[in-house]
Every structure is written in structure tokens, then in C-alpha cells.
């Protein structure tokens, strides 16, 4: 057992209101003490005393780790972990965990992915905007309207979220391609509509829609850069509900402005919130949402419960799950 089991919950201001510390403590083993702050250095005493930090997209830096000598675990309330210095935590012997195996965000992120794809295919944003201006835009828009059926969807990353996207793609009669470090089983590929694994560059050349579902790491930063965006068909669409920095945002704006890419659906940005100078905010044929893919009422409950379950088990002496910075 870890005593006295101090848990520091960090929530960035732009996400929303603070959670109830008392409510969280009630879900943890007896004796757990919870402090909720909006920045890890907001309460230095709480950080110094913390045994566990639970972070909901708020940065946990090497300096924060150094300021918490008793820290034993960092729990991310998300599938991603790019906002935590996981290498510095590994050097300190502190595991960093996600909620990846719970699939807590998978259903809703998949739904948001298809919402963006459908909005692009059916030109919903320009159609709505035109009608609010008393502009019957049908003659102009019908030349660019398309359908998902019969198209090829390239999924970059076939974890819990990617597989939920593939299931929905099969229901839309789409051909499913994917790229991943390891091939999933033939049985899984069959359940996902006959999904077929390809190298990333080949997937980009073959796809009508490309959607990203990988974590942001040093290896995946700007995974879609100018070179790779140029591999896409001029009729293709890119959707990103994972992390903004997976795409070179300026290169994407270039492709949209030049017409070498048909459109993009973007839910995530680098940084967040985006600055007014971000070119994507004014690029043609984009559908934008403010990182809402994982934050429905239902999803937030599942995320919180998954994070609390892992912390509770750890405080009870069990090894943590979904560790992303294990040595070696």
C-alpha cells in the first residue's frame, strides 16, 4: 500500500470546470486524498506531496516530475500521452499510463471521424452557410457532392479507435486499408470488412479518405508532411481526430489552397486552442471542431472511470495497466 496516497488531478483551464475532489476520493481506496488543480504547478505543496498525478490533457513536464519526489504514477485520462514527459518519468522510474485498453473514447472518436467524413462528402458546411445567406447553392454544390459507399478508407493506426472506425467503414460499404506496426489477425481483418494492411505511402496513394488514429510521439510528429500529402489523390480527404501535430498544418493548408487535396476534417490542433494565425482556419473546404471527438457526456464518464480504476488498483498494490514508458 502507498500511504497516505495523495492524488493530484490536473485539468487544463480550456477543457472545462473542475471535477469534485470529494467525488473522486469516494471512488478510490479508503484514505486517498484528492486535490484538483488547473495546472500542475498551481499548488506546489500538493505537487510535492503527490504520489499519483492524474492529468486530463494538462502538461506534466520534467520540472513537475522533479518537484514531486514521492511520485509513483502518472495516469493520463486519455488514450494519448504526448502532454507528459514520459521519457523523464521513465528516468525517474515513474510509469505513465493511459486508458488505451479500456476503449473509453473509441466509440465516440469513431463517430466524430464519420461525422467529419460525411460533412465533407455532403458539403454540409458550405450548404448550411449558403442557405443562411438565402443562397440556394444546389447547382453549385452538386458537382462536388460525393458518397462514402464504394470509396477506400485508409486508417493510420488500428488500435481500439482505428478498429471502431473500420467497423463503421464496413457498414458504409467502404474498402478498408490500414497501416500499423503489426498486422492484426486474419480473423480481425475479416471482422473489419476484409481490412488489408499496407505501408503508409502505399495506403496514401490508394485512399479516398485517410484518417489518423496513432499517438503523437517523436516518430509520428508531422507523419503527414508535405511529401506524404503530395502522395494523396487530388480528390482525397484527410481527417484527424487524434493529435494536431501528426500533420504539418502549414503543408496541409498549402495543399488545400492549391487544390491538390479535396478537403480536410480536423478536430485537433497544434497548439490548442489554435491561434488566430492558423491558416487552416481560413483554408478552403475544411470542417473544423474544437477537440470534441472524445468529450461526450457518456465518454467523459467512461474516461474518468477507466482512469480511476487504474489508479485505485495501483494504490491497492496491483501493477498499473497501459504503461507507455516501460524500460526497454
UniProtKB/TrEMBL annotation:
Q: Give yes or no: UniProt keyword Aminoacyl-tRNA synthetase.
A: no
Domain D-isomer specific 2-hydroxyacid dehydrogenase NAD-binding: start-end pairs: 114-293
Q: Which InterPro entries match?
A: D-iso_2-hydroxyacid_DH_PdxB, D-isomer_2_OHA_DH_cat_dom, D-isomer_DH_CS, D-isomer_DH_NAD-bd, NAD(P)-bd_dom_sf
- Where's the D-isomer specific 2-hydroxyacid dehydrogenase catalytic domain? 34-325
Judging by the UniProt lineage, the source's domain of life is: Bacteria
The answer to whether keyword tRNA-binding applies is no
Q: Keywords on this record?
A: NAD, Oxidoreductase
PANTHER family under this entry? D-ISOMER SPECIFIC 2-HYDROXYACID DEHYDROGENASE CATALYTIC DOMAIN-CONTAINING PROTEIN-RELATED, D-ISOMER SPECIFIC 2-HYDROXYACID DEHYDROGENASE FAMILY PROTEIN (AFU_ORTHOLOGUE AFUA_1G13630)
Member of which family? Belongs to the D-isomer specific 2-hydroxyacid dehydrogenase family.
What name has this protein been given in UniProt?
Answer: D-glycerate dehydrogenase
Q: Which organism is it from?
A: Streptomyces ziwulingensis
Amino acid at each position: 500500500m502507498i500511504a497516505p496516497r495523495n492524488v493530484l488531478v490536473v485539468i487544463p483551464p480550456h477543457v472545462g470546470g473542475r471535477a469534485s475532489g470529494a467525488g473522486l476520493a469516494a471512488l478510490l481506496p479508503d484514505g486517498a486524498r484528492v486535490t484538483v488543480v488547473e495546472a500542475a504547478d498551481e499548488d506546489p505543496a500538493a505537487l510535492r506531496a503527490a504520489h499519483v498525478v492524474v492529468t486530463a490533457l494538462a502538461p506534466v513536464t520534467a520540472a513537475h516530475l522533479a518537484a514531486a519526489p514521492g511520485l509513483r504514477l502518472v495516469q493520463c485520462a486519455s488514450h494519448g500521452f504526448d502532454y507528459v514527459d514520459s521519457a523523464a518519468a521513465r528516468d525517474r522510474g515513474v510509469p505513465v499510463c493511459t486508458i488505451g485498453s479500456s476503449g473509453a473514447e473509441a466509440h465516440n472518436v469513431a463517430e466524430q471521424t464519420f461525422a467529419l467524413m460525411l460533412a465533407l462528402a455532403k458539403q454540409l458546411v458550405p450548404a448550411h452557410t449558403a442557405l443562411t445567406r438565402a443562397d440556394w447553392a444546389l447547382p453549385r454544390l452538386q458537382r462536388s457532392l460525393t458518397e462514402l459507399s464504394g470509396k477506400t478508407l485508409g486508417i493510420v493506426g488500428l488500435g481500439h479507435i482505428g478498429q471502431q472506425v473500420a467497423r463503421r467503414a464496413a457498414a458504409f460499404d467502404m474498402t478498408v486499408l490500414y497501416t500499423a506496426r503489426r498486422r492484426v489477425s486474419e480473423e480481425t481483418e475479416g471482422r473489419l470488412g476484409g481490412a488489408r494492411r499496407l505501408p503508409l505511402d502505399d495506403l496514401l496513394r490508394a485512399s479516398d479518405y485517410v484518417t489518423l488514429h496513432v499517438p503523437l510521439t517523436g516518430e509520428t510528429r508531422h507523419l503527414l508532411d508535405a511529401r506524404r500529402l503530395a502522395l494523396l489523390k487530388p480528390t482525397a480527404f484527410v481527417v484527424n481526430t487524434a493529435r494536431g501535430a501528426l500533420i504539418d498544418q502549414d503543408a496541409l493548408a498549402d495543399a488545400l489552397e492549391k487544390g491538390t487535396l479535396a478537403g480536410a476534417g480536423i478536430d485537433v490542433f497544434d497548439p490548442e486552442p489554435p491561434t488566430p494565425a492558423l491558416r487552416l482556419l481560413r483554408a478552403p473546404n475544411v470542417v473544423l471542431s474544437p477537440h470534441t471527438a472524445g468529450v461526450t457526456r457518456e465518454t467523459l464518464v467512461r474516461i474518468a472511470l477507466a482512469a480511476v480504476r487504474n489508479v485505485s488498483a495501483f494504490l491497492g498494490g496491483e501493477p498499473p495497466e497501459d504503461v507507455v514508458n516501460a524500460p526497454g
